[in-house]
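WARN no homologs supplied; continuing
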Amino acid sequence: MGDDPFGINQHTISNIVQEIQEALDLKVQIGIVIGGGNIFRGVALGAAGMDRATADYMGMMATVINCLALQDTLERKNIYTRVMSAIDMQEVAEPYIRRRAVRHLEKKRVVIFAAGTGNPFFTTDTAATLRANEMSCEAILKGTQVDGIYDKDPQKHFDAVRYDVVSYDEVLQKNLKVMDASAIALARDNSKPIIVFSLSEPGGFAGILRGEGTYTKVE
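OK structure emitted
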């Protein structure tokens, strides 16, 4: 949502697409999982009295909107993409089928995974880790608003210390909040490294692939 109070900021999407283009130039295969918090935060409304499962399904619909917006911007840059949804909505996205998703990646298409896992009570963090394992990805790159994992919120505490490398167990034990516990546990059980970096750092995505930049590695 960029600097807007909610919704989709086109400048933000354009910047993300530029990051993706630079990464693709390095001849990598990319799968993307997008949240829906800029449109709808299921957990927040669930806590406010709405049925949690209903709120989560609404959140999944929000991710589809974001995925379609990203697909449109990517394809206007002549980057071939496929949106695959965990919830069946064939008029706007392909159903998620693992072998078909792998084939899209082999054909150098960017695959955008929509609707999380398709189940309530699971976050898009867990969906990203699940899809990374299913696609046999080498790593999970989590783009955030900060340049890594800190021992406390760096936007609230000037003395926050950034980790260069941290273990899965330490993330869980110290409740570092980078991803939810189920996502961290799933990554740990499958030895899938997680790289946390800032999406606002120009060239940060491709820089990580080249072994450059500022980030935290969870392993």
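Strands lie at 31-33, 81-85, 94-95, 110-114, 140-144, 149-150, 162-163, 165-166, 194-198, 216-218.
OK
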